[in-house]
Design goal:
It contains 33 helices and 4 strands. The protein is mostly helical and about 675 residues long. The strands form 2 sheets. A two-stranded antiparallel sheet has the order 1-2. Strands 3-4 form a two-stranded antiparallel sheet.
Length: about 675
């Protein structure tokens, strides 16, 4: 039994026995010193538990058990790891009610067992590299289990045939993000159906090449690189600027060359940001409170485009949206042959079903209008009713595209296929801002993916290496002419979560198939024949998913903090409202541009007017981009408003020394051996 030196079991403060109550003796429970209750803080720091135990006598220097606990260094290792979810505990040591010496001993023993269990679980957690991002409680209600158990880990090799299956499966689940961007930008540039098929083939080729490069020379996480929605909004801003509205001859090629030049300059900035080490410094200021609203703004930027385009053919778009929601939400737990097909293939299955339905509508004459021909330009139509019907026919009919007849069977995309890039300072500056936002987007994806695949966080040097390689991938996109830059797709997180496959070998095999598919011109023609209303409906869902994935970064911070929610709310609201002011400033654009392009026409007619044409164009364009404004606001607020690291929930990256001492990290993130010798440090 502990002595009077702080054990909490003294008869009284002077060491005298208490007087009895009635029979001259006092019960044990009545002369125990009152013990202060343990009030855990919001960060659940076990050091607070130890400090409370010392003050109340549960940790004493006189018993062997307490000596071991007091001197143990394992207990000091239990500290909250920033940037990951905190485990939930439903049991804390309660206030001693004075029920007697035996109960006190039992509580002391329970406390020691609880601490031992904490140390054992935490050590196992750290040794195995497992993280608990979802905070899912275990059966005993005390400690969370990993929410994701991977079928195949980062370095697993399930065999050649399974690699082919899982590789194609990964890209099939991302088909909406990979091939639907050309269905938006090519019509805006007045490109032909043949041009549409060529751009789709180019994107397939670049996706395959850049994904292989990232798997070997980037962060080496299982992430698909492709045309990102981050670059879509600025591309539409450039396309709808006043300079290009009145072009008639070779409008598509001229605008594409303009985009190529801007993307090349923006990609070079991203390469410098990564290779120079500036990204490592910038990572100190990029936290979940910055990433969450920025990525969410990427998806929200297209709310004025999504359903206005899909609404041109509601008999196609609404059933497709319903089908997507049914597959992803209501049937997500249904398994067929051991695979949750409705979750994995929700987008391609829904699109295929509705595309077939639209085919029967077309064949059945639902879009036949007497005296109206969709091939005649609307400017030459004399009957207004025919103009409306022609618009519906172009958006709804499955045979509206002429891509199958014009596209060759075999076509190999090649560099500068649209001509030599055009470099204008104003568009290049816009893409520099966009490349910075793309880097921030990728930082959040790297962190979330490393936790999802049960790998340790990459070092800042590895993140910088990944950003630099993304810049190189965007450089390739600018040289080949895909219309947008290449970056890590945010939707990767959702795909890995539902497929439970994190093998980078599978991604490499699938990327090789994409390269082969890109040479088949008719395949690009088939994808180019997707009705625009159907594509817009799928994009509505994907953009909504992007918003959800962006906001999910808030789980790494304290969402109950008024500071954090205020920064996110203010930056997200003003990130939508300020660009809306620039987008709606010039009402004359409503007479020139379709309604779904109005949000992207502010560059030439915004409120920023200084008389310097280049400066006016840049400022009006940049301030009309939701994601750029949101990022700038969130970045400034999060790094100026006072708040501790635990409150802000900063991302925690591994140290270079950790990687030098950890063979597992080296196997996960190190460059291939033949490449490593050219670098002075394996952590690069």
């Amino acid at each position: 039994m502990a002595s009077s030196s702080g054990s909490g079991l003294d008869p009284d403060c002077n060491g005298n026995k208490g007087k009895g109550s009635g029979n001259g003796e006092r019960k044990f429970g009545t002369f125990l010193k009152r013990v202060e209750p343990f009030l855990p803080k919001k960060d659940m720091n076990p050091r607070d538990l130890r400090s409370w135990a010392k003050r109340t006598g549960f940790v004493s220097g006189e018993t062997s058990t307490n000596n071991k606990l007091s001197e143990s260094s394992d207990f000091d290792q239990i500290k909250p790891i920033l940037g990951r979810d905190k485990p939930k505990r439903e049991s804390d040591i309660e206030h001693v009610t004075g029920s007697g010496l035996e109960e006190d001993q039992n509580e002391d023993r329970d406390m020691v067992e609880l601490v031992s269990e904490v140390v054992e679980v935490e050590k196992k957690d750290l040794e195995n590299g497992f993280y608990y991002p979802g905070g899912v409680e275990s059966e005993d209600g005390k400690w969370p289990k990993p929410i994701v158990v991977m079928k195949f880990g980062l370095r697993d090799n399930p065999g050649f045939v399974p690699l082919i299956y899982y590789g194609l499966q990964h890209y099939m689940s991302l088909v909406g993000s990979l091939v639907f961007i050309p269905l938006v930008i090519v019509p805006a540039m007045d490109g032909s159906d043949k041009d549409m098929a060529a751009v789709i083939s180019t994107m397939l080729l670049l996706t395959g090449i850049t994904t292989i490069l990232h798997s070997y020379f980037g962060t080496r996480l299982p992430l698909v690189q492709g045309s990102s929605f981050v670059y879509l909004a600025p591309a539409l801003v450039v396309i709808n600027s006043e300079e290009f509205r009145n072009l008639n001859d070779n409008k598509f090629r001229y605008i594409m060359r303009e985009l190529q030049g801007a993307i090349i300059v923006g990609s070079l900035f991203q390469c410098i940001l990564g290779f120079s080490g500036l990204m490592s410094l910038l990572l100190r200021f990029i936290n979940p409170v910055v990433v969450a609203p920025t990525v969410a703004a990427v998806g929200l930027a297209f709310f004025s485009y999504g359903f206005p385009q899909a609404g041109a053919c509601v008999e196609i778009s609404i059933p497709l949206l319903f089908l997507l929601l049914i597959f992803t939400l209501y049937l997500r737990g249904v398994s067929l042959f051991g695979h949750r097909l409705f979750r994995i293939y929700a987008v391609p299955l829904s699109a295929l079903i509705i595309w077939t339905y639209a085919f029967f509508l077309t064949v059945g004459g639902a879009y036949e209008y007497r005296g109206c021909n969709a091939d005649i330009p609307s400017s030459n139509m004399l009957i207004n009713e025919c103009k409306k019907h022609a618009y519906t026919m172009k958006h709804c009919r499955t045979d509206a595209s002429n891509a199958w007849n014009t596209a060759p069977w075999v076509r190999i995309p090649y560099p500068f296929q649209w001509g030599f890039p055009i470099f204008h300072m104003r568009t290049c500056i816009i893409m520099i801002f966009v490349s910075l936002v793309a880097s921030v987007d990728s930082v959040g994806t790297y962190h979330s993916t490393s936790m999802l695949v049960n790998a340790k966080h990459p070092t800042r040097g590895i993140v910088s290496r990944g950003i630099a390689l993304e810049g190189f991938c965007s450089l390739l996109a600018g040289i080949w002419g895909s219309g947008t830059g290449s970056t890590t797709l945010t939707e990767n997180i959702h795909t890995i979560n539902i497929t439970k496959v994190a093998s980078r070998r599978a991604l490499v095999i699938g990327a090789m198939f994409l390269i082969v598919f890109s040479f088949l011109g008719k395949l690009g023609a088939i994808l180019a024949s997707i009705p625009q209303a159907l594509a817009a409906s799928v994009l509505c869902f994907i953009w909504a998913l992007t918003v959800a994935l962006g906001l999910s970064n808030l789980r790494y911070t304290h969402t109950a903090s008024f500071r954090n929610v205020t920064i996110v709310g203010v930056s997200l609201f003003l990130g939508l409202s300020i660009p809306a002011y620039f987008q709606q400033y010039q009402p004359l654009t409503t007479l020139i541009l379709p309604s779904y392009y109005l949000a992207f026409g502010a560059a030439s007619s915004g409120p920023f007017q200084t008389g310097i044409e280049q400066l006016d164009f840049v400022m009006n364009a940049v301030l009309s981009l939701n994601m750029v404004v949101t990022f700038l606001l969130a970045f400034v607020l999060d790094n100026t408003v006072p708040g501790g690291k635990e409150d802000r929930g900063v991302y925690m990256w591994s140290r270079a020394e950790d990687m030098e001492m950890d063979p597992e990290m080296q196997a996960d993130y190190s460059l291939p051996r033949r490449i490593t010798r050219f670098f002075g440090c394996r952590c690069c």
